[in-house]
């Protein structure tokens, strides 16, 4: 009997498939969408603060700009920032997690404490301080989010590494004189790709929540559209009670982005470890 | 003996600390190896037998430097290798290699078997070019009875026996002089076992290898070994050339092992000796002779005084008070 | 003091010390002149000079660091450009409101979440499992300002059951104060409880399921101890240990939720202050806010550690 492939098992996970389709749609909207929808700037020709209509089917903002276009461009910003944050988190979290899980001893203990301490520190106020000091930009926000997202990734890499390094093939590699670097970054990393992938989808989700929170607090890049930024503008001007669409559509975009990535992560996780259903 | 001893183990001791419990009585240790001495001669196959918990795997792992000895030495070609580090350790690795017990766990599921065999050669820079490495990989695969065309496949496509052949090819990739086989066939079906054992014998002849063959199965050890070492609770009980050991064994433990092993060829089976009780815990090994708690010839003296390892006949060593007189001859 | 408390205390102090060091380095190693970050342009040149000296910005980095620590130990967090007041006294007035909000939310979350977790562990079933899983996904996906806004819009604007914002109605006397604060706190508190409840229920349920499988619970049942009693006394205490531990880890995240919630409800705490400080580019205030929140989290984590120690018979206090 042939073993079921990952994709076959995954396709039976209903929530996972929903997440996967949702993520695909968001990626489509954010990557391809901006080529078809104009970037909104200056003053729009439409009526300001007009509700959804055939012309502007998500309504317009206080400057008469089309909310739908803003949301599409906002998707691009969210993807850009969360993906860059993931890269930063991987760059820090994976090596530290591997080293702490594989070489235990003093360095391992040191990294463990660093993980624990970074997880205790309330990161949002710190990110606010840094973004305010450096000045809000897409790059700042992405780096700051990534720099504080590494501990969860490092912890997952560490725990998976602890498990994998007990395997006989790791001992075999040691006996064969394979270098520590190759053992960690090839032998172990290849075998923990699953949990790493799951955590990456979760970081994609939380990164967008954090990015939106920073933008909502007025620390988003003023030169790009972001969902949190649209909310911030509406709240600051007090339009949020009059023009519900300025709150609901950007906020719904944020939550759908987060939910879809979370569902995708859950789907992958439960396909990889059928027993560990939480 | 006039043969060259290429590997010497002297007074080798390995204790594993156990984490103290919350109600902490002082630290305790698993006494895995107690003052093990052995010589390995060039070209021979030394079988190591013992029950699980006898320390036989630890012996192999300590010789190959997967474990640091608590005390004692491992000398390879006259050089102490038990404290090697870095480049020196890496160089030492090319001399002694290991074939692991579980062919399912000892191959990385995410690496192709060709890469698994080639990787050590790349790590040790055995060849200058990729083509040479590839050629050597194919050569090794042929040598262990695998088709070189399968190099790009992953371990899950192979049977247990085939995987063990891959493990052997990988161990041979560094051209080692000594191969330690740690229960290398015990996870395999009986029919496959004999194929792999024959492969070991063929490779030994072809490459002039020296083996340490660790197993709990006496019939396997009997088939392949030139000499046999009997280990009990980390202590060497008897060492003898195979032919002699099966004819005349001195230690009651060896006697019980041999009587318990199924032996279709010899009709002269005496009554089976069934040992009472379980092997004692290596955390609190018995005082005196380690075996006295289960020995059917136990004397008062055995409970207090540990016997020494004595050469009773040429090349035949026994650790038992029964032969103290003869030992003095 | 026992080893456990000493260790936890040392870890707490180390955590705060690291937070302090990060802050110090960020402000000084960022591109650009740290003076502009610490001293506003709107200050008079004389005031700016005084400030510059008080930060020791003309001295080498390590001396600045010692000065920074010394000032912190004296309770000096710097000077706010916007409020023209010391950061410590401004935050001192706001911190209690934030702690009140966070403390009550945490209390309510545990008060509802623990029994719900136990009950859901007793009634296992596919439907309930699914419901909890979905609730957890939604819980971790909540964008706090949206939830806060929806609550504010429905209950304060549409239904007019609750006050619109702030922490108490202006111009009331002290006898009415308590009721006023409670009515103002309902919605902000509800926002945080809704956000964090699902994970608490999940943790409680999972640890309860683990504990119910343990030998001593089965032994107690076999001995004929009443099923209710087994659940609520024998098992609960042990199941609480991991839940409280996780709650301790949640506090750091809860600060983020509290900051965002406060801004929507104009709650007069540190969160709303941070929002204003961002708009006013008041860096010393932002720095002070982070340090104080970090210290609060460290203290709250220590408290949960002590609760764990009290619950866990293996740890001697």
Automatic annotation (TrEMBL), chain A:
CDD domains for this protein: TM_PBP2 (cd06261)
Gene3D superfamilies cross-referenced by the UniProt entry: MetI-like
Chain segments annotated as transmembrane: 15-37, 79-102, 188-209, 243-268
Key word Membrane present: yes
InterPro entries registered for this protein in UniProt: BP-dependent_transpt_permease, MetI-like, MetI-like_sf, OppC_N
Matching Pfam families: BPD_transp_1, OppC_N
Compartments, record wording: Cell membrane
Keyword Transmembrane: yes
SUPFAM superfamilies hit by this protein: MetI-like (SSF161098)
Membrane topology: Multi-pass membrane protein
Cellular component GO terms held in the UniProt record: plasma membrane
Keywords: Cell membrane, Membrane, Transmembrane, Transmembrane helix, Transport
GO biological process, one term: transmembrane transport
ABC transmembrane type-1 domain segment(s): 75-265
Annotated protein name in UniProt: Dipeptide transport system permease protein DppC
Source lineage: unclassified sequences, metagenomes, ecological metagenomes
From TrEMBL, chain B:
Keyword annotations from UniProtKB, A to Z: ATP-binding, Nucleotide-binding, Transport
Pfam families: ABC_tran, oligo_HPY
GO aspect biological process, one term: transmembrane transport
UniProt GO MF annotations: ATP binding; ATP hydrolysis activity
Stretches assigned to the ABC transporter domain: 7-258
Protein known as: Oligopeptide transport ATP-binding protein OppF
Gene source species: bioreactor metagenome
Gene: oppF_3
């Amino acid at each position: 009997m042939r073993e079921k492939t990952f994709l076959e098992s995954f396709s039976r996970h209903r929530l996972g498939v929903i997440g996967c389709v949702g993520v695909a749609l968001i990626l489509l909207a954010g990557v391809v969408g901006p080529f078809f929808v104009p970037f909104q700037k200056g003053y729009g020709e439409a009526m300001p603060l007009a509700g959804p209509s055939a012309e502007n089917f998500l309504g317009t903002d206080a400057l008469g700009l089309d909310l739908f276009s803003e949301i599409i461009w906002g998707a691009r910003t969210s993807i850009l920032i969360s993906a860059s944050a993931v890269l930063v988190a991987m760059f820090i979290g994976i090596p530290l997690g591997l080293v702490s899980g594989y070489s235990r001893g003093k360095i391992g203990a040191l990294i463990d404490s660093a993980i624990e301490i970074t997880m205790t520190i309330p990161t949002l106020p710190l990110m606010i301080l840094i973004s305010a000091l450096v000045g809000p930009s897409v790059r700042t926000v992405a780096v700051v989010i990534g720099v504080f997202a590494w501990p969860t990734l490092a912890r997952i890499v560490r725990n998976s590494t602890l498990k994998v390094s007990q395997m006989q093939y790791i001992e075999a590699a040691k006996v064969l004189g394979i270098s520590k670097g190759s053992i960690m970054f090839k032998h172990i990393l290849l075998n923990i790709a699953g949990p790493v992938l799951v955590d990456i989808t979760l970081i994609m989700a939380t990164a967008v929540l954090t990015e939106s929170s920073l933008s909502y607090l007025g620390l988003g890049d003023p030169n790009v559209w972001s969902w949190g930024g649209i909310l911030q503008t509406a709240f600051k001007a007090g339009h949020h009670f009059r023009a519900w669409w300025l709150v609901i559509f950007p906020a719904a975009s944020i939550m759908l982005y987060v939910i879809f990535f979370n569902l995708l992560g859950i789907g992958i996780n439960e396909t990889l470890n059928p027993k560990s259903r939480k | 003996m006039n043969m060259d001893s290429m590997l010497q183990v002297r007074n080798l001791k390995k204790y594993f600390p156990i984490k103290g419990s919350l109600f902490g009585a002082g630290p305790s240790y698993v006494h895995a190896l107690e003052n093990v001495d052995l010589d390995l001669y060039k070209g021979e196959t030394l079988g190591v037998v013992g029950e699980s918990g006898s320390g036989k795997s630890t012996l192999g792992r300590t010789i190959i430097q997967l474990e640091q000895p608590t005390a004692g030495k491992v000398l390879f070609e006259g050089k102490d290798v038990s404290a090697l580090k870095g480049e020196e350790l890496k160089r030492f690795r090319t001399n002694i290699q290991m074939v692991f017990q579980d062919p399912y766990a000892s191959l990385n599921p995410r690496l192709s078997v060709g890469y698994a065999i080639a990787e050590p050669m790349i790590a040790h820079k055995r060849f200058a070019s990729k083509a040479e490495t590839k050629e050597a990989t194919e050569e090794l695969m042929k040598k262990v009875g695998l088709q070189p065309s399968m190099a790009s496949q992953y371990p899950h496509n192979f049977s247990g026996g085939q995987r063990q052949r891959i493990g052997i090819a990988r161990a041979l990739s560094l051209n080692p002089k000594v191969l330690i086989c740690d229960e290398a066939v015990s996870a395999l079906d009986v029919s496959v076992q004999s194929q792999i054992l024959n492969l070991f014998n063929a490779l030994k002849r072809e490459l002039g290898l020296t083996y340490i063959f660790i197993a709990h199965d006496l019939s396997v050890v009997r088939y392949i070994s030139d000499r046999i070492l009997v280990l009990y609770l980390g202590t060497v009980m008897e060492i003898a050339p195979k032919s002699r050991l099966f004819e005349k064994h001195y230690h009651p433990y060896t006697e019980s092992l041999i009587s318990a092993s199924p032996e279709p060829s010899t009709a002269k089976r005496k009554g089976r000796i069934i040992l009472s009780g379980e092997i004692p815990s290596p955390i609190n090994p018995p005082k005196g002779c380690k075996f006295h708690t289960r020995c059917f010839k136990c004397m008062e003296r055995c409970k207090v005084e540990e016997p020494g390892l004595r050469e009773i006949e040429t090349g035949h060593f026994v650790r038992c008070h029964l032969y103290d007189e003869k030992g003095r001859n | 003091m026992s080893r456990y408390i000493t260790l936890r205390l040392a870890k707490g102090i180390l955590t705060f010390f690291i937070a302090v060091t990060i802050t110090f380095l960020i402000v000084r190693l960022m591109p650009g002149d740290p003076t502009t970050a610490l001293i506003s342009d709107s200050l008079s040149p004389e005031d700016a000079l005084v400030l510059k000296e008080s930060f020791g910005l003309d001295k080498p980095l390590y001396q600045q660091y010692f000065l920074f620590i010394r000032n912190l130990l004296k309770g000096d967090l710097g000077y706010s450009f916007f409020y023209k007041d010391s950061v410590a006294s401004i935050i001192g007035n706001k911190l209690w409101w934030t702690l009140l909000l966070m403390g009550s939310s945490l209390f309510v979350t545990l008060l509802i979440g623990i029994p719900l977790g136990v009950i859901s562990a007793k009634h296992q079933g596919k439907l309930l499992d699914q419901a909890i899983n979905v609730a957890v996904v939604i819980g971790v996906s909540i964008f706090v300002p949206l939830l806060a806004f929806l609550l504010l819009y429905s209950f304060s604007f549409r239904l007019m059951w609750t006050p619109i914002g702030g922490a108490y109605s202006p111009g009331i006397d002290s006898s009415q104060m308590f009721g006023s604060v409670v009515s103002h706190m309902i919605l902000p508190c509800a926002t945080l409880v809704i956000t964090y409840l699902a994970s608490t229920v999940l943790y409680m349920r999972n640890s309860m399921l683990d504990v119910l499988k343990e030998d001593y619970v089965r032994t107690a049942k076999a001995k004929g101890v009443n099923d209710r009693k087994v659940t609520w006394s024998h098992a609960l205490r042990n199941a609480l240990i991991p839940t409280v531990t996780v709650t301790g880890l949640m506090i750091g995240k809860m600060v983020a939720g509290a900051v965002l919630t406060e801004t929507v409800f104009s709650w007069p705490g540190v969160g709303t202050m941070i929002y204003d400080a961002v708009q006013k580019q008041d860096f010393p205030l932002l720095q002070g806010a982070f340090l104080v929140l970090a210290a609060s989290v460290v203290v709250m984590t220590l408290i949960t550690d002590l609760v764990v120690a009290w619950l866990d018979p293996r740890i001697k206090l």
